[in-house]
From TrEMBL:
Location (main, coarse): endoplasmic reticulum
InterPro entries: Reticulon (IPR003388), Reticulon-like (IPR045064)
GO biological process, one term: response to bacterium
Residue numbers spanned by region Disordered: 1-21
Protein name: Reticulon-like protein
Superkingdom of the organism of origin: Eukaryota
Membrane disposition: Multi-pass membrane protein
Positions of transmembrane segments: 50-67, 73-92, 153-183
GO cellular component: endoplasmic reticulum membrane
Gene source species: Miscanthus lutarioriparius
Cellular location(s): Endoplasmic reticulum membrane
Sorted UniProt keywords: Endoplasmic reticulum, Membrane, Transmembrane, Transmembrane helix
Domain Reticulon: 41-226
Length: 226
């Protein structure tokens, strides 16, 4: 699908010290596939593989229904899945010689030491990167990001008090499966609305920064020694 031309937003000379500027809303140096985590992930999130996307959505809906609506216990569910799996393997292993079929084999990727090591390294890298970003934000190096994180955590706290954790995860999963596809389809319209909102937010932040935040005394922040 060809990318639509992104709208430009003009800012007044009074908003910026360097005079009027022209900006793109979502100025990307990477493709959409890389931004979403790779070709396979983007195919699912953008519904290019409709069968796989629909299957994942149906599976997530079933899990949410079992845990949140039926209030199925996770221990009971895992035990039932294990019982069903062992029963199927038992029947398969006993019936395989009768039909000249090979017995069931455990896929090597499940017990592969290299696969576990790669997963552990990926989780460690992501966690270390997240903690580093959180540390920089908590130290107040970027006051704008600090306020955004505080506001986001406050909103999440309110949402967590009004709905269950399973429902919150399911809503986030639905957003991940629908918003990227909707944005790809209505990219020009969304960029135009976000551009206007971004400029209004910048003006509001500058007023708050000049009238309130700049008057708050700040202590020195120690830099990390690599």
């Amino acid at each position: 699908m060809s990318q639509a031309k992104l709208p430009h937003v003009q800012t007044d000379s009074s908003d910026d010290d360097d005079g009027p500027t022209t900006k793109l809303v979502f100025q990307r140096s990477k493709s959409v596939d890389k931004l979403l985590g790779g070709q396979k992930v983007s195919d699912v999130l953008l519904w290019r593989n409709r069968n796989l996307s629909a299957g994942i959505l149906a599976g997530a809906t079933l899990v949410w229904f079992l845990f949140d609506v039926v209030e199925y216990n996770i221990v009971t569910l895992l035990c039932h899945i294990a019982l069903l799996g062992m029963l199927l393997l038992f029947i398969w292993s006993k019936a395989a010689p009768l039909f000249d079929r090979p017995p069931p084999q455990i896929p090597e990727v499940i017990v592969s030491e290299q696969a576990f090591r790669e997963v552990a390294q990926t989780i460690h890298y992501k966690l270390a990167h997240f903690v580093s970003i959180l540390y920089d934000v908590a130290c107040g190096k970027d006051l704008k990001k600090f306020l955004m994180v505080i506001g986001s955590l406050w909103i999440l706290a309110i949402l967590g008090d009004t709905c269950s954790f399973t429902t919150l995860l399911y809503v986030g999963f639905l957003c991940a499966l629908t918003l990227p596809a909707l944005y790809e389809r209505y990219e020009t319209e969304v960029d135009h609305l976000v551009a206007k909102g971004h400029e209004d937010l910048k003006k509001f932040y500058k007023k708050v920064d000049s009238n309130v935040l700049n008057k708050i005394p700040r202590g020195p922040v120690k830099t990390k020694v690599l």
